[in-house]
Amino acid sequence: MTDWQRDYAMLALRIDRLVGGAALSGTVLIYRGPEEWGAQAGSEPPAAPGRLADDAERLLESAPSPYLAAQVRAMRAVARYLDGERPPPAEYARECLGLEPRRLPEVVFEEAHAELDAALPKGRGSLAERLRAWQARHTLDPIDRLPDLVAKAVAETRARTNTIIPLPEDEVVGCRLVEGVSFHGAGAYEGGLRSTIHINRAIPFNLADLLYLVAHEGHPGHIAESMLKEIHLADRQDQGVRFMMSPSFVLSEGLGLLAEEILFPGDEAQEWLNRHIFPDAGIRSDGSDFAAIHHAKNVLWGVWGNAMFLAAEGRAEAELGEYLTRWALYGDDEVAPALGLLKPSPMSPYIFGYFHGWELLRPWAATRPDRVRRLLTEQLLPADIAL
Questions:
Q1: Strand, helix or coil at 87?
Q2: pLDDT per residue as tens digits for the range 309-321
Q3: Inter-axis angle of helices 317-327 and 301-312, to 10 degrees?
Q4: Domain ranges of the chain
Q5: Nearest CA to 327 among 312, 307, 308, 311?
Q6: DSSP codes, 312-379
Q7: Fewest CB within 10 angstroms: 19, 22, 309, 339, which?
Q8: Are the CB atoms for 197 and 173 separated by under 8 Å?
Q9: What is the superkingdom listed in this entry's lineage (predicted)?
Q10: CA-to-CA distance for 220 and 164, rounded, in angstroms?
Q11: Which secondary-structure segment (H or E) carries 171?
């Protein structure tokens, strides 16, 4: 273990403590490194952000690889933010994420709306009303049945991922319904080949999204990536220090949004749900096109980035809410929590990673199992992704 690796881990731990301690974003780090380092960072007085930025600068001078240099640049940017610097959103995102997000022309969202219009069942009402009606027709009630259905989806997504890259046979993935959280679903790898998909029981669950969510959070998404990199990069101590505001998580979220399409091309996801899930749930086919709906949903992640740019310009909350309603098709109950996520924080640029990561990876990896294997086993950056 080199001094550089230890200093790298301690820098990440100290920044994470400042982010969580200030109640700004909760956490910025997934840490599975030596316990004594975590204990030391937790027991010492909180570090000054300016000192941590200087520490990052020194580490950057001797970074052993381009990947680690990019991670340290991200840490430096977050430390500077905590020290009071407020660069423009695109500049801050470039330093953190390794790519420069752009504001999308609204014609991109108009095209996604047209795709939704063609994919949803015909009916009265606005496009947003038809989308909510489609979601309601596929909502599971009661939600307590969901863990059993998630288990079926996990088995199928693992089997299909196993044809791309071998998975450990004794892996265990559970499902837990949780309360008092802001997310809809989250996959957590806990080590020892054990993981849990956490799902917010307070949000109605659309069974048409079952594979979309399970593939994203599980296989070949977040759980598979965490587990396989722990196995394939066992000799890389820095792999246990996963700084979330970094270029690697652009690829993680891009892979998550692409995951269902990788495993279930065309209408295969819908066919599987019709055969294995919907009959027992009493759901009948309504002629909708799930693949097109999910593609449009991925495009509409770009609305969040545009809203972030508008928020940085100082636009009023009412205007931001109207923008989300118009382009993301949000209802009143969705706008209020969304506005909270648009408030400036050290983690603000993370939201750009979803659309831009998906846009970057889709032409590169959607039909290339060899490249999916690389995403699951190598330390890659957005700059490494090229057609």
A1: coil
A2: 999 999 999 999 9
A3: 160
A4: 3-85, 106-384
A5: 307
A6: HTT--HHHHHHHHHHHS---HHHHHHHHHHTS--TTGGGGHHHHHHHHHHHHHHTT-HHHHHHHHHS-
A7: 22
A8: yes
A9: Bacteria
A10: 9
A11: none
